Amino acid sequence: MSKIIVDQIQKSGGTALSLPSTDGTGGQFLGTDGAGNLSFASPSPPSHAPEDTPDIIGSVITNSARQNVYSTGEWSSSGPWTTYYHSWQDANSITQGFNMFMGDGYPNGSSQPFYVNDGENAMTRVKEYAHGRRIGSNRKDYYYYDNITTNYSGVSWRCIPIRNTTASPITRTFNAYLSAVDSAYGGGAVVQYTPNTGIYSTTTGGTWNKIGSANSNTENLVSSSVVVPAETTILLFLCSVHRYETTYRFKDTNSIYNLHTSFGTGLVCDLRMLETLATARIANESTQTIAEPHKLYPACASIYGDR
Q: Cystine design at 238: which of 26, 91, 134, 158 (Cβ 3.0–4.6 Å)?
């Protein structure tokens, strides 16, 4: 039987399609460039990037309380490396708070405390989702054997990634409900992190802005004006403390409400960044005295795709 080598094949309209001169590898397929040239190509991996939708609003929460955060022999009053205020009232506290939120207040350490995941009720980078108009917890119950009645209690950090899908900045009010004890060690806060660019892969820095605070020994209603730049994802943090209720019993309120007025009309929860906040590792941290949330953005691009 004679062997026939076909150099070209004809479409029904008569246009010649050029076949590649060599075979591809196993699993490849023939693809076209739209101009009559065929070549072997590998199939693209299936996309695993979650699609943003108004129907899903999520957050990531971490907390710390080894039967009271500041108990002797556990935290002491210094935090991972210096005085830590739950209210995130200074740059040192923001640095420590962000690292603890990410799961380790001493990320370059070996035998040092993590300062989180240190109690039987601890949560570390746990995803929680909204039902209706609220997300979070109201007067969540903790039982602490140390029974410290001052402001040295447990602390919770929640982060919601908010994306502006439009070409113009959006200013929107976000309403938080936070437990607190005082304005410093036992204070609560709403803090915004804004990257220096709207593109994940090119983000190299960003700015912190404290936009709300809670300082009364009760559950505090805090309304904050949030500015989200065009086509950008910002990180909104809610910080609360576990407030003394009665003997050995503490309560934590850390929630956001009125989601129907805060989200929508251009603002969505960035589900790609939500997954990154819950899972990604910021590598190569040289010291616990720095926090580099901007590194989450190129990590998100690498894992889920750039935008």
A: 158
Give the domain ranges of the chain. Answer: 8-41, 58-304
Long-range contacts of range 205-212, CB-CB < 8 Å, 24 or more positions apart? 205/294, 206/293, 206/294, 208/91, 208/94, 210/88, 210/89, 212/176
DSSP notation for 74-123: TTTTSTTTS---TT--SHHHHHHHHHHHTT-SSTT-SSS--SSS-STT--
Q: What's the pLDDT score for residue 48? A: 77
Distance of alpha carbon 100 from alpha carbon 107, whole angstroms = 9
Specify the amino acid at residue 153: S
Cβ atoms < 10 Å from Cβ of 22: 6
pLDDT digits (tens, 9 = 90+) for 216-226: 999 999 999 99
Q: What's this model's pTM, rounded to 2 decimal places?
A: 0.84
Q: Which residues is 257 bridged to in the sheet?
A: 175
SS3 260: helix
**38-96 pLDDT tens trace:** 887 776 555 678 899 999 999 999 998 765 555 555 666 678 888 889 999 999 999 99
**Of 155, 105, 126, 156, residue with least CA distance to 59:** 126
